[in-house]
């Protein structure tokens, strides 16, 4: 009896469980000796490949080898049945294909491979359990992570400055590293002074003896990531949502925000005076510019009766000061003008949904291409049968050709199964975007200072111009640029299908 060995491990499995390829191959070789088999060739190995898909090069080579060496291979030996596939349909397809070549699947750790009904039943049960285990594991992992996240806990790899610890409940969390946590805080404080570059902070970290968990010197890439990570304030992001953690923060939110402003300043994204920009009384002095090219700043003045009054004024031309409430009221009016009209909302919705449906069409086109290829291969099968009837092919040649065709069809069908279109609630997403566009002025008014500045950078990447009566801009976010084109009297744009807003 001659056997070939197939081994597979994903990067994640090997990292988490030390489920190495070497151990699979070694145990498989021992099984071959113990059961008086002989190896037909060197093992086929897929390193770092997932069994959830059929895009595995070594598995494809194994199937081809079994076909081209038909009669010279009796068994495919695997460490465990889920090494071949974690999907019942894929397992049955592979087993059927190998069966045509006279090859059975044997497992080192499971009682399958026999020719009796009991062994076949066990193989089906094991394959079903492999799929069930994969599905259940995925659900448990997601549920566990979501549950811990809702409680403010994280279980993934701790960022530099924290250590992973195991809690009594059997899951990981993070706690401050007694050696590195004070260094992290110091590096944030030093950068917040606004006089150091990231490269200088990196040298400072190494001079303090700040090392990675493996004892290596800190690289600038680590410092770059660290200075931008909000997790040090005790909060963390998960699926686009900010969560309050139950672990101990290393720095204050105020310190983190000050560091972010210096980061943006050094990258040229904010004013050269970040300390002055970070003022809750004058949020628009980061964004607003005078028609002379200068930036608006803000200040308080005392009135004749002793009261304090807030004003915006251009730091360059000093043309005149504008009361804070008037200045910001004009800005709110400008935001209101940006909001789309009812008929435009329907157009936006149609455009976006049309684009999304176009993406689905692309995937469906790929599936259709595979279907056409399957039809062509099926036609080859019919031609082989016809040529055999005409005695052009002898029975042995015909059998070999039909086996090759069946293998090709199986691979095509497996690849077709991989092209699964992800379900996505595009209507909900579009409605959320439209809510943002329609209520842009309310959102700006209600958010806190730091979010106001992020908001303004996102909508007005090059700032806004003020001519002392109204605001305007040369460049807005793409979606608002589209609106401006539509608003143009001579616009050639027309509404696509369904100009009425969809319900």
Protein architecture, described:
Helix 3 (57-68) runs antiparallel to helix 13 (395-418) and helix 12 (342-389) packs antiparallel against helix 13. Strands 1, 2, 3, 4 and 5 form a five-stranded parallel β-sheet that branches. The protein contains 17 helices and 15 strands. It folds into three domains: 2-148, Rossmann fold, CATH 3.40.50; 162-266, Alpha-Beta Complex (Hect, E3 ligase catalytic domain fold), CATH 3.90.1750; 340-438 and 473-503. It has helices spanning 11-17, 21-34, 57-68, 88-100, 117-150, 180-191, 198-207, 220-227, 253-266, 274-277, 324-338, 342-389, 395-418, 426-438, 440-446, 449-459, 478-487, and strands at residues 2-9, 38-39, 44-47, 75-78, 104-107, 162-166, 172-176, 235-238, 241-244, 288-290, 296-302, 308-314, 322-323, 464-466, 471-472. The protein is α/β, with parallel strands linked by helices and 503 residues long.
Measured distance between first and last alpha carbons: 66 Å
| Percent in strands | 5-15%
Mean pLDDT: 77
CATH architecture title of the largest domain: 3-Layer(aba) Sandwich
CATH homologous superfamily title of the largest domain: Resolvase, N-terminal catalytic domain
Number of strands: 15
What's the domain count? Answer: 3
The portion of residues assigned to helices is 40-55%
Structural class: alpha/beta
Largest beta-sheet details: 5 strands, parallel
């Amino acid at each position: 009896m001659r056997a070939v060995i197939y081994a597979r491990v994903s990067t994640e499995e090997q990292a988490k469980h030390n489920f190495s390829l070497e151990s699979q191959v070694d145990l498989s070789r021992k099984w071959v000796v113990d059961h008086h088999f002989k190896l037909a060739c060197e093992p086929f190995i897929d390193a770092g490949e997932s069994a959830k898909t059929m895009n595995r090069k070594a598995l494809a080579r194994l199937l081809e080898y079994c076909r081209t060496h038909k009669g010279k291979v009796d068994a495919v030996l695997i460490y465990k049945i889920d090494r071949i596939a974690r999907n019942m349909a894929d397992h049955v397809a592979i087993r059927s294909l190998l069966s045509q070549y006279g090859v059975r699947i044997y497992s080192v750790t499971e009682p399958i491979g026999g020719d009796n009904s009991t062994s076949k039943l066990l193989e089906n049960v094991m394959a079903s359990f492999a799929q069930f285990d994969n599905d259940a594991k995925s659900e448990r992992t997601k549920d566990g992570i979501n549950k811990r996240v809702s409680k403010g806990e994280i279980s993934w790899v701790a960022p530099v400055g924290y250590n992973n610890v195991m809690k009594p409940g059997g899951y990981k969390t993070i706690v401050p590293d007694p050696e590195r946590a004070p260094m992290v805080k110091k590096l944030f404080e030093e950068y917040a002074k606004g006089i150091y570059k990231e490269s200088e902070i990196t040298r400072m970290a190494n001079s303090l003896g700040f090392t990675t968990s493996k004892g290596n010197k800190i690289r600038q890439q680590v410092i770059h990531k660290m200075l931008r990570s909000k997790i040090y304030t005790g909060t963390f992001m998960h699926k686009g949502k900010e969560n309050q953690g139950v672990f101990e923060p290393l720095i204050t939110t105020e310190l983190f925000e000050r560091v972010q402003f210096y980061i943006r300043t050094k990258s040229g994204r904010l004013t050269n005076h970040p300390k002055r920009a970070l003022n809750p009384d004058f949020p628009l002095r980061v964004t607003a510019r005078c028609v002379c090219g200068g930036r608006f700043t803000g200040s308080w003045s005392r009135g004749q009766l002793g009261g304090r009054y807030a004003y915006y004024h251009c730091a360059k031309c000093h043309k005149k000061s504008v009361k804070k409430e008037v200045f910001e009221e004009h800005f709110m009016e400008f935001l209101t003008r940006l909001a789309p009209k009812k008929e435009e909302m329907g157009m936006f919705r149609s455009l976006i949904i049309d684009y999304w449906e176009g993406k689905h069409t692309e995937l469906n086109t790929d599936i259709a291409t595979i279907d056409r290829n399957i039809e062509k291969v099926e036609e080859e099968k019919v031609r082989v049968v016809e040529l055999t009837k005409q005695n052009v092919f002898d029975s042995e040649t015909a059998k070999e050709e039909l086996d090759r065709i069946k293998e090709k069809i199986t691979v095509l069908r497996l690849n077709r199964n991989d092209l699964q279109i992800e379900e996505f609630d595009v209507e909900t997403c579009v409605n959320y975007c439209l809510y943002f566009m329609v209520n842009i002025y309310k959102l700006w008014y209600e958010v806190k200072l730091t979010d106001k500045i992020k908001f303004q950078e996102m909508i007005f990447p090059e700032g806004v111009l003020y001519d002392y009566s109204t605001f305007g801009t040369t460049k807005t976010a793409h979606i608002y640029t589209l609106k401006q084109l539509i608003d143009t009297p001579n616009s050639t744009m027309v509404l696509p299908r369904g100009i009425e807003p969809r319900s």
